[in-house]
Amino acid sequence: MTADLFEGVLDVGPARQKIADGATLLRGFAKAFEHDLMPALHAIIAQAPFRHMHTPGGHQMSVAMTNCGSLGWVTDRSGYRYDAIDPEIGKPWPAMPAVFLLLAREAAARAGFAGFAPDACLINRYEPGARMSLHQDRDERDFDQPIVSVSLGLSAVFLFGGPKRADKPQRYRLQHGDVVVWGGPSRLFFHGVAPLADGEHALLGRQRINLTFRRAR
Ligand code: MD6
Ligand code: FE
Asked: Domains in the chain and their CATH numbers?
């Protein structure tokens, strides 16, 4: 309440940009969590390595994925779903680290979604040339819950459309530390990522990592 009262009058934290009804871009929000975030990320990847999943149509995705949390998002010939077991390893996904939970909850709250408690974090790795075509995130049970998306490493152009696939997307360049929170009226808007340009990031090298936190069940 106090923060909202002084919004625009005092500097009350990282910049907050509304990109649509219910969608907010928090520039640099994740940087304050970086110190704990990076080792936690590396520990997850060591337990549940990145892999290129297949779409139900049989195409291999250019983005490599893994998950942490009690549920993980997977795709294969039988479809998209959330699963408690990593199909590659036959064991549960790594637990969601406390710093992941904290970052997701704080970002959601800052965007107007208090009480966000994700049970799944999909981790995407883009190498130069990798892209994600326009899609909706609709495998979750409760669309009242937002999605929190954290960008790390190389910057990428995030495509943000509308409720119909044909809606012309706006383009946002997302840098290391930027967070997009997605919910309410735009929860089911189409979005994607343009092919990643080559480059070298000081912390992550030649890649972009995206964390998307969801409440799946
Ligand atoms: C990405 N992001 O940024 C892919 N989904 O690598 C997503 O698909 C996404 O950023 C829902 C909400 C925010 C997102
Ligand atoms: Fe998505």
From this structure: 8-214 (2.60.120.590)
- Determine whether the shortest distance from the Cβ of 24 to ligand 1 is under 6 A: no
Q: Which pLDDT tens digit goes with each residue over 5-34?
A: 445 444 456 689 999 999 999 999 999 999
- Spatial distance between the Cα atoms of 125 and 187, rounded to a whole number of angstroms: 23
Neighbouring C-alpha atoms within 13 Å toward the C-beta of 189: 25
Radius of gyration of the chain (CA): 17
**Which residues are 51's β-sheet partners?**
65
Gap from CA of 192 to ligand 1 centroid (Å): 7
From the CA of 107, the nearest ligand is: 1
Nearest residue by C-alpha to atom 14 in ligand 1? 149
d(CA 207, CA 203) in angstroms, rounded, equals 10
Report field, pTM of the whole predicted structure over 0.90: yes
Percent pLDDT > 70 in the chain is 94
